[in-house]
Design goal:
Structural class: mainly alpha
Radius of gyration: 36 Å
Shape: extended
CATH architecture of the domain at 1-129: Alpha Horseshoe
CATH class of the domain at 1-129: Mainly Alpha
Oligomer: single chain
Number of strands: 0
Strand content: under 5%
Length: about 575
C-alpha cells in the first residue's frame, strides 16, 4: 500500500491544477507513455501503467498527495520515463523544492530532448534560478528543433541580453527580422539593446526604419520624439513632434508629449496653453480630457499659480459633458484647494447623487465637515452613506463618534454595535477600534464587565491599540483590580509615546494605586510638563494625591484647588480641599 504525503503540502499542490502537464496535453502524455512503457518487461509495464494512470486520475480529482505518491512509485519502477520526471518536477517546483524540481526537469529533457514543453519548463526554472548559460543552451537547442516558432528567438535574444551579451542578442533579432520583416517589437528591442551598448545612432536608426516603412503612422513619429526627448536631444524631438502634428494635431498622445516637451524646456505657459486647448476641444473623448485635465492641474500646483484660472475651463467642460460626474469630483477638489468649502461640498453632493454606491463622494464631504466639528453635518452625511453602503465601516465609526461627542452615548453604542454586525472589516486594526469604542461607551454607561470584555476583543485584534491599552489600564486602576496587568498595558503606551501626557498620567496613576508613589509622582509631573496648555482637572487632582502621599501636603492642596478651578475632578475633590486630607 502506498503512503500518503503530509497534508500540509496540499495547499501548495492545489495550484497544480492549472499548471499540470496532464491538463495541457493529456493525449501527448498517454502516447509518449505507451511508447516509453513498451521498453519495460510485461510485468513491470503493467505495474507501471497501473500506478501512472492512477496518478493521472488522482490528480484530475484534486488528490495531489495521492498523485505524487503514485508518480514516485512510477519513478521507482522506471527512472528513465520523461513523463514521470516532469510530473514530479512540477510537484517539487510548487512545493518550492527548486533543486529537486530542476533535477527532475533536466531528466525529462534528457530522456525526451525534442519535447517543446519539457524544454520550456526547464528553461523557465533555470531562468528563475539564475542559470543563464543553461537558459541560452536550451533556447539554442529549441530554435534548431523548431525554427518556425519565432517566440523562441525572442526568448533566446532575451537570454543573451540577460547574460550581458547584447551583440549576440541583436544578432538573433536581426536574423529573426529576415523572416518577419521590419516590425515594431523587434525594432524596439534592438533600440533598447543598442542604447544599453551606448550606440545611440544605431538605436535611433531602428526606429527610423519603422517610420520609413510606415510614414503615415503618427505613433512612430511621436515615439521617436519621445525617445529623443529622453535622450535630451530636444531639437530632434521637436522635429518629430512637428511632423506628427501635420498628421493629427489633436492626438492626445501627441498633446501629452508636447506638454512633457514644454515642461522639460521650462516653458510652463506653453504647456498650459497646450493642455487648455486640448481640454476644450470637443472632438477629444472625455476620458482623455480628464487625463489631460489632471496633468494641467498638476502643472498649476507645481508652479504655485492661482487655481481659480481653471474655473472657466470647468464651465466649458460641464457644458460639453453635463452628465459626467467625475468632473464634479475633480472640480470639488479644485475648489477645496481654493478654500471654497461651500462650493466644493456642492460638487461632492452632485457626485454622490450620481454615484450613491461610491464611498469617495461621502468621504470628501466628511473631509469638509470633520475639521469644522459640524456634528449634525457628519451625521447627515454618514446616515445617507450607510443607506447605500452598509458594508463600509468608516461611516459607522464617524456616525458613532458624532453621537458620542454629543453625549448621545446609548445611540453611539448602538451605531458601533451595528457596525460590528454589518460592516466588512478588511483591516483588524479598524475592527479593534470599534471594540475599543464599545468598551469606552459601556464603561461610561456603567456596564463595566461588558466594557472589559470589549477591550479584550480589541486587544486580541490589535495588541498595540494604544487608546485601548490606556483606557483599559486606567479603568482597571479605578476599580483597583488587576493592577499588575494594568501596569503592563499602560507601560506599553508610555514606551511607544513617551511624551503623551494622557498616557503618562495613566501610568503614574496605576503606579500610585500599586503604592509606588515616588515613581508615580515622576510620571505625573512629566504628564504636566508635556501637556499643551493647562493640564486637565483629572491630572491636577492626581498630582495633588501623589504629592500628599509623598509628604508635600501644602502643594497637594494647591493642586486640588487648581483642579476645582479647572472645572473637574472626582466626587471627593471638595472634601480633600476642605479637610486637607485624602
Amino acid at each position: 500500500m502506498y503512503h500518503s504525503i503530509s497534508t500540509g503540502r496540499n495547499l501548495f499542490l492545489a495550484l497544480l491544477l492549472i499548471i499540470s502537464l496532464s491538463v495541457i496535453f493529456p493525449e501527448e502524455i498517454i502516447a509518449q507513455q505507451e511508447q516509453q512503457g513498451s521498453q519495460l518487461d510485461e510485468d513491470v509495464r503493467r505495474k507501471f501503467d497501473y500506478y501512472f494512470y492512477g496518478a493521472l486520475n488522482a490528480k484530475s480529482l484534486g488528490k495531489y498527495a495521492e498523485a505524487m505518491d503514485l508518480f514516485q512509485h512510477c519513478y521507482a519502477l522506471d527512472s528513465t520515463n520523461a513523463n514521470v520526471s516532469v510530473e514530479l518536477g512540477t510537484f517539487y517546483n510548487v512545493l518550492q523544492e527548486k533543486d529537486k524540481a530542476l533535477d527532475f526537469f533536466r531528466r525529462s529533457v534528457r530522456y525526451d530532448p525534442a519535447n517543446y514543453y519539457y524544454n520550456m519548463m526547464l528553461a523557465g526554472l533555470s531562468k528563475e534560478l539564475g542559470l543563464k548559460q543553461e537558459v541560452i543552451d536550451i533556447y539554442i537547442h529549441l530554435s534548431q528543433l523548431y525554427p518556425e516558432k519565432l517566440d523562441i528567438r525572442f526568448e533566446l535574444a532575451n537570454a543573451f541580453a540577460e547574460s550581458g551579451d547584447f551583440q549576440k542578442a541583436i544578432d538573433v533579432l536581426t536574423e529573426l527580422e529576415k523572416n518577419t520583416g521590419i516590425n515594431e517589437m523587434i525594432a524596439l528591442n534592438k533600440f533598447r539593446l543598442y542604447s544599453m551598448m551606448n550606440e545611440k545612432e544605431k538605436a535611433f536608426d531602428e526606429i527610423r526604419q519603422i517610420i520609413e516603412k510606415n510614414p503615415s503612422e503618427q505613433k512612430y513619429l511621436i515615439l521617436m520624439g519621445d525617445l529623443y526627448l529622453e535622450d535630451s536631444k530636444r531639437d530632434k524631438a521637436l522635429e518629430y513632434y512637428d511632423r506628427a502634428k501635420v498628421i493629427d494635431p489633436d492626438n492626445p498622445a501627441l498633446i501629452l508629449s508636447m506638454v512633457n516637451y514644454y515642461e522639460k524646456t521650462n516653458d510652463k505657459q506653453a504647456a498650459q496653453a497646450e493642455l487648455q486647448k486640448a481640454v476644450t476641444n470637443s472632438s477629444i473623448e472625455v476620458d482623455v480630457k480628464l487625463q489631460l485635465l489632471t496633468r494641467y492641474l498638476s502643472i498649476l500646483q507645481q508652479s504655485k499659480q492661482d487655481m481659480k484660472q481653471v474655473n472657466s475651463l470647468f464651465e466649458t467642460l460641464f457644458e460639453q459633458h453635463p452628465n459626467n460626474s467625475q468632473l464634479n469630483m475633480i472640480y470639488g477638489n479644485v475648489l477645496l484647494l481654493q478654500e471654497n468649502k461651500e462650493g466644493a461640498a456642492e460638487q461632492f453632493r452632485i457626485y454622490t447623487k450620481a454615484n450613491p454606491e461610491d464611498p469617495a463622494g461621502y468621504e470628501q464631504l466628511l473631509r469638509i465637515a470633520l475639521p469644522e466639528e459640524d456634528m449634525e453635518k457628519i451625521k447627515e452625511v454618514t446616515i445617507e452613506a450607510l443607506k447605500h453602503l452598509p458594508q463600509e465601516p468608516q461611516f459607522y465609526f464617524y456616525l458613532g463618534a458624532a453621537h458620542y461627542q454629543q453625549e448621545n452615548k446609548k445611540e453611539a453604542l448602538k451605531v458601533f454595535e451595528e457596525g460590528l454586525a454589518n460592516a466588512i472589516f478588511r483591516n483588524p486594526i479598524v475592527e479593534s477600534d470599534f471594540h475599543g469604542q464599545i468598551g469606552d461607551l459601556n464603561y461610561s454607561l456603567g456596564n463595566k464587565e461588558v466594557a472589559f470584555e470589549s477591550y479584550e476583543k480589541a486587544l486580541k485584534l490589535n495588541p498595540q491599540n494604544l487608546p485601548v491599552l490606556n483606557n483599559y489600564s486606567y479603568y482597571l486602576s479605578l476599580e483597583k483590580r488587576d493592577l499588575d496587568k494594568a501596569e503592563q498595558m499602560s507601560g506599553i503606551t508610555v514606551k511607544v509615546e513617551p511624551m503623551n501626557p494622557t498616557y503618562l498620567d495613566t501610568y503614574g496613576w496605576v503606579l500610585y494605586e500599586q503604592g509606588s508613589y515616588t515613581l508615580a509622582r515622576m510620571y505625573i509631573e512629566q504628564a504636566i510638563q508635556y501637556s499643551k496648555g493647562e493640564p486637565s482637572p483629572d491630572v491636577l487632582e492626581h498630582y495633588g494625591d501623589v504629592l500628599f502621599k509623598t509628604g508635600d501636603k501644602e502643594k497637594a492642596i494647591e493642586q486640588w484647588k487648581k483642579a476645582k478651578e479647572a472645572g473637574g475632578g472626582s466626587a471627593t475633590l471638595k472634601k480633600k480641599i476642605k479637610t486637607g486630607k485624602l
